[in-house]
Amino acid sequence: MESDRNAHTGILMSSPHNHTHMDVHVSPSTVTGQVQAPPSKSYTHRAILAAGYADGATVRDPLVSADTEATMGAVEAYGGSVDRGEDAIDVTGFDGRPAVPDDVIDCANSGTTMRLVTATAALADGITVLTGDDSLRSRPQGPLLDAIEQLDGRAESTRANGQAPLVVDGPVDGGTVSIPGDVSSQYITALLMAGAITEAGIEIDLETELKSAPYVDITIEVLDAFGVDVESTADGFAVAGGQTYDPEGGEYAVPGDFSSMSYLLATGALAAPEGLTVTGARPSAQGDSAIVDVLERMGANIEWDRDAGEITVSQSALSGVEVSVADTPDLLPTISVLGAVADGDTRIVDCEHVRYKETDRVAAMAEELTAMGASVTEEQGVLTIHGDDTDLSGAVVDGRADHRIVMSLAVAGLVADGETTVRGGEHVDVSFPDFFDVVESIGASVHRD
């Protein structure tokens, strides 16, 4: 997933409290009240850049993090300005005509920023140089550089290895590009966003099947909100040129992040007899909103007021189900914890690719839940949790330096007998820095050392 790739190599190091190891002790507790889900990083990046392409726009409820600040910096480098308020960012855009930056654009550790704004550079009438930190300068950009060359722009890696620093010379006026679909959906996103304001538009022919398709759906959804139309073609996508970025009412509200929300919803289903309301749950193209469907299928008492963007869930007797995580790999840790508390077997299928995230999340959840007393069968592509043979009890478990493992084990600790200690709690910084403050605020017994 996108957020994970950015986090994979660098955010852990750049975060101020990450040099210290943190153990989190969780005891059985009940929760109630209302919590706000953190905003989606993927939507925030796209919305900030879309507002830059516009004459201007207000981005409401953005996720402000090191990565999205890199995108704000790029918008300013291309001649826009960004004014950050309490819960909104006011962007004065460069209105479809990016200026040649005064200086090198530093994308820090944000791979999403670099890919999205490299295509912007191809629209400027002159030369742009883009770089980033050590980790970012080791990541591949070749297919995007090749695509810009196909549009008659100049795009090269200073070290000729397909990695940043990148040098881009425009302007391009559109055309057709052929690009592999299985390397990064962010190349597609970058070209669609820039293509809308070229003269001729851009047609993208995918040479291979598109991986991470939900991310392109997110891009199309954000573009639609900004009044920009993208079409699917037999071979890929096309965006007509000469379009204008102009969101309705001059603003765009970023939806909450459903991967992060999944831990809060699971907390409600396991430990909120009086109910827990999660706000910021606007419907969106995020694959991980499937967690609501999974909870419904398991028998949870859950209601989603889509207009208000609120989901209310209360403690329920859950039953095991079979769930495919082919398109929602980030939900595996959450679902496996729900399965440990549910009656019967919960089978998580199509999960082999979940072994190649920050850590092998299939093995990690199998081993750590087993340490807490769960009965688990692990196969290469299937994880089965035998709820009937499981009584969770507190244990010392290892979060594997992986934000998603840490949060899901902490949720399990709320309903395990005795105290659970999750090692490496600081790693929640990657996607949900105040996770432990949030669960404490609704009544969870959590202490950190």
Automatic annotation (TrEMBL):
Q: Which residues bind 3-phosphoshikimate?
A: K41, S42, R46, S184, S185, Q186, S212, D330, K357
Pathway connected to this protein: Metabolic intermediate biosynthesis; chorismate biosynthesis; chorismate from D-erythrose 4-phosphate and phosphoenolpyruvate: step 6/7
The record's annotation in SUPFAM superfamilies points to: EPT/RTPC-like
Which residues does the Swiss-Prot or TrEMBL record annotate as the active site?
A: D330
What GO terms describe the biological role, i.e. biological process, of this protein? amino acid biosynthetic process; aromatic amino acid family biosynthetic process; chorismate biosynthetic process
Annotated region Disordered: where?
Answer: 1-39
- Polar residues bias (residue ranges): 27-39
EC number(s)? 2.5.1.19
Keywords annotated in UniProt: Amino-acid biosynthesis, Aromatic amino acid biosynthesis, Cytoplasm, Transferase
- Domain Enolpyruvate transferase spans what residues? 28-438
One GO CC term on file: cytoplasm
Q: Which PROSITE patterns match?
A: EPSP_SYNTHASE_1, EPSP_SYNTHASE_2
Instruction: Tell me the GO molecular function terms.
Output: 3-phosphoshikimate 1-carboxyvinyltransferase activity
Q: Which reaction does it catalyse?
A: 3-phosphoshikimate + phosphoenolpyruvate = 5-O-(1-carboxyvinyl)-3-phosphoshikimate + phosphate
Name the protein family: Belongs to the EPSP synthase family.
Q: How does it assemble?
A: Monomer.
Please give the function described in this protein's UniProt entry.
Catalyzes the transfer of the enolpyruvyl moiety of phosphoenolpyruvate (PEP) to the 5-hydroxyl of shikimate-3-phosphate (S3P) to produce enolpyruvyl shikimate-3-phosphate and inorganic phosphate.
NCBIfam families of this UniProt entry? Answer: aroA (TIGR01356)
The protein's name: 3-phosphoshikimate 1-carboxyvinyltransferase
Q: What organism, scientifically named, is this protein from?
A: Halorhabdus tiamatea SARL4B
Q: What is the taxonomic lineage of the source species?
A: Archaea, Methanobacteriati, Methanobacteriota, Stenosarchaea group, Halobacteria
